[in-house]
Design goal:
Layout: H1 3-11, H2 27-35, H3 44-47, E1 52-57, E2 66-71, E3 74-78, E4 84-88, E5 96-99, H4 105-111, E6 125-126, H5 140-153, E7 156-162, H6 164-172, H7 174-183, H8 185-208, E8 215-219, E9 223-224, E10 227-228, H9 232-238, H10 240-252, E11 256-261, H11 269-274, E12 279-282, H12 291-298, E13 303-305, H13 310-313, H14 317-331, E14 337-338, H15 351-365
Parallel strand pairs: 1-7, 7-8, 8-11, 11-12, 12-13, 13-14
Antiparallel strand pairs: 1-6, 2-3, 3-4, 4-5, 9-10
Helix pairs in contact: 6-8, 8-10, 14-15
């Protein structure tokens, strides 16, 4: 089976040779691995023959991206979503957000018309995710050529974009969003709906250009280690209508609906299923999520994408083998499981250890 066939079979609970495999890595993890023998200028996706490739979907209001300041290893960037962030250049770490473009309603009203498609502008789809890129993208011709090469490789292609909550965090700010859920939920609902309508428009344009994803993957953090960032009822009031609209559109186009949420958002798992969600990632183990238990509760409704504890990845050989053996053996029964770490692989995991992990995943993930 090729990657596309394998992933579709897993989601649709059809016979498959082994579980599909994909993973994510911190930038400094790859830096460490290169010092330890990982071939330079090599993509882990290609080295390990992952079954999935993630393309970027740019549903931003397209502020002009700009490098504002360089200070040693720290850089300050304005992203095309309009926020300004200070971050480490070559490391994946917590970032310092300095400003957001829609901190109040007048600011939102001033630029919301920028959620529109300019036929003469660069494509709003790209080979890789868009955050922190300092260019405006490439032509549709280039995107179509890149897409054709991926299709020749037989990978399952996911289009990745922010979900409505993540888009609001970029536009409005984290702290302000939490206050606004109480003080002015109507503003947040309007931003969520405007963004989601435009995201659908961008995906529709991509389909019209013959760049057709197999699924769409929303980055949509709803929780932390100890639970949701806000009440389930607040999520239902402000964000669920937009998720329902996105889910209905994806279903109408025959595209699988994937979502990433950090932490433990189980109080709204059933809501997400009702919105059409089919695949959930990364199922952080440290937040109390365990794919063996989730499989019993939601196994006929959700495909699970992750839950292999990155903390145990840097533990003993016995710890990580038990983690992989026990979870994958249970999760693969009847399909509905795709391998992924329970977040992104951190630099504490050596190159030698990760090669061992990949061997164990294939060993225990084969039917």
């Amino acid at each position: 089976m090729n990657g596309k066939e394998r992933v579709i079979a897993a989601i649709e609970r059809q016979p498959v040779d082994r579980i599909p495999i994909y993973d994510s890595f911190w930038l400094d993890t790859l830096g460490r691995w290169q010092e330890e023998g990982f071939p330079p200028d090599t993509n882990p996706e290609e080295y390990f023959d992952f079954d999935i490739h993630i393309m970027g979907i740019d549903a931003s209001p397209r502020f002009t991206p700009e490098l504002l300041e360089e200070d040693g290893e720290m850089i300050t960037i304005r992203d095309r979503f309009g926020y300004v962030v200070k971050k480490e250049r070559n490391k994946s770490r917590t970032m310092m957000y300095l400003s957001h473009p829609a901190e109040d309603r007048p600011q939102w009203e001033a630029f919301k018309s920028q959620f529109s498609i300019d036929p003469q502008a660069p494509a709003r789809v790209g080979l890789n995710p868009f955050p922190f890129q300092l260019d405006m993208g490439v032509s549709w011709q280039q995107v179509q050529e890149d897409y054709s090469r991926l299709r020749e490789k037989g990978q399952y292609i996911l289009g990745s974009a922010y979900g409505p909550h993540e888009a609001i965090l970029r536009l409005h700010g984290f702290e302000k969003t939490l206050y606004s859920l109480c003080d002015c939920p109507d503003l947040l609902r309007e931003i969520a709906e405007t963004y989601s309508d435009f995201l659908i428009e961008v995906i529709r344009e991509s389909i019209q250009k013959d760049v057709v994803f197999d699924g769409v993957f929303l980055m949509e953090d709803l929780a932390g280690t100890n639970g949701m960032l806000f009440s389930p009822n607040q999520w239902r009031e402000v964000f669920r209508p937009s998720m329902e609209k996105i889910g209905a559109f994806l279903k109408s186009q025959g595209l699988h609906f994937w979502m990433h949420s950090c932490g433990n958002a189980e109080p709204v798992f059933q809501d997400l299923i009702e919105c059409g969600l089919q695949v959930l990632n990364p199922l952080e183990a440290k937040s109390g999520l365990d794919v063996r238990q989730l499989k019993e509760t939601y196994g006929q409704k959700l495909t699970f994408f992750g839950n292999i504890d990155v903390i145990k990845m840097s533990g003993t050989d016995a710890e990580i083998e038990e983690e992989i053996k026990e979870k994958i053996t249970a999760a693969k029964v009847g399909g509905g499981y795709v391998y992924h770490s329970d977040h992104s692989v951190p630099p504490e995991v050596s190159w030698t250890r990760y090669q061992q992990i990949m061997k164990m995943v294939k060993q225990y993930g084969t039917y």
